[in-house]
Specification:
- The protein has 286 residues and is mainly beta.
- It contains two helices and 17 strands.
- It has a 15-stranded mixed β-sheet that branches.
- β4 and β5 form a beta hairpin.
- The longest helix has 6 residues.
Length: 286
């Protein structure tokens, strides 16, 4: 700390697991109070995702073709190591005018040893009968790449009984195969399954008679690989709160009868339906 204006934090997580042994996850963070209305921060972090039971010893077999019979099998054979990340972050927060805050944040992440699906040599399997061709797919660490993005988040309280919060976030993924990888689909599938743009706007009213009225609008851009179009929707809640007791009327996904947000795995698009329901809550106070 420097004269109550600059704070630097250095730390680390220390992890030991049965699959990859000892893992080190250090971080360095800095916060600078520019003045009473502005602050800036930055961080550098190393993180890992250790193997799970799926990558360690999974055996999932699926029918690909019936004539002649052909099966594909995802194989976790214990050769998957930890996925690794070096993340760089920076942000800025300011009181622009009285009752209006603005947060800006950006990041750049470098990934190595990401999960890939590597094809093996097909072979004839006789058990269980009938004899069939088996196409093995091994879980390996053949992907790498980076992500870059930013978020803008204003927070405005025009009156003591009304608050408006919003955010816009942008994400760009750039993944590729590491040297020696034969994975032909994971990079495209991952890049096309994450939205590039997201917008949210939340409004909260504190009304007389202990009533609260909240609305939330959100927009999510398309997921081309999953054939999910961009969509926008809104949730709303009217609540009456008395001490530990609450009655609420809630509406979700109100702008259309239904809309898809993701595809089945496997299967068609999964539609999220409009819904309206009542809620009764009671909180215990010790």
């Amino acid at each position: 700390m420097v004269k109550d204006r600059l704070w630097i934090t250095v730390g680390s997580k220390f992890l030991h697991n049965n699959y990859t042994g000892f893992e080190l996850q250090p971080t360095v963070r800095a916060l600078w109070a520019v003045n009473s209305r502005q602050s800036a921060w930055a961080a550098v972090t190393r993180a890992v995702r250790t193997p799970s039971l799926v990558e360690e010893d999974v055996q999932i077999t699926a029918l690909v073709r019936t004539n002649p019979p052909l099966f594909a099998r995802a194989v976790g054979d214990g050769n998957f190591t930890s996925e690794r990340l070096i993340g760089y972050e920076a942000g800025y927060r300011a009181l622009v005018i009285p009752k209006l805050y603005l947060d800006l944040a950006t990041f750049y992440n470098q990934y190595t040893h990401l999960l890939s699906v590597e094809p093996g040599t097909p072979f004839l399997e006789t058990s269980p009968a009938p004899a069939h061709i088996l196409f093995p797919l091994y879980l390996r660490n053949g992907m790498l790449g980076n992500t870059v993005g930013f978020e803008v988040a204003p927070d405005w309280s025009p009156t003591r009984w009304w608050r408006v919060q919003g955010s816009y976030s942008f994400l760009h993924l750039d993944l590729s195969r590491a040297h020696g990888s034969l994975d032909a689909s994971t990079a495209r599938s991952t890049e096309g399954s994450s939205p590039h743009h997201q917008v949210t706007v939340q409004s909260s009213f504190e009304l007389p008679k202990k009533l609260e009225f909240d609305q939330a609008y959100r927009y999510v851009s398309a997921l081309p690989v999953q054939h999910v179009r961009a969509y926008s929707t809104m949730d709303s809640q009217l609540a009456w709160r008395l001490s530990r007791f609450e009655l609420a009327l809630v509406g979700q996904n109100l702008l259309q009868p239904n809309h898809p947000e993701f595809a089945g795995d496997p299967g068609p698009l999964v539609g999220i339906k409009r819904s309206v329901y009542g809620k009764i809550s009671w909180r215990r106070e010790d």
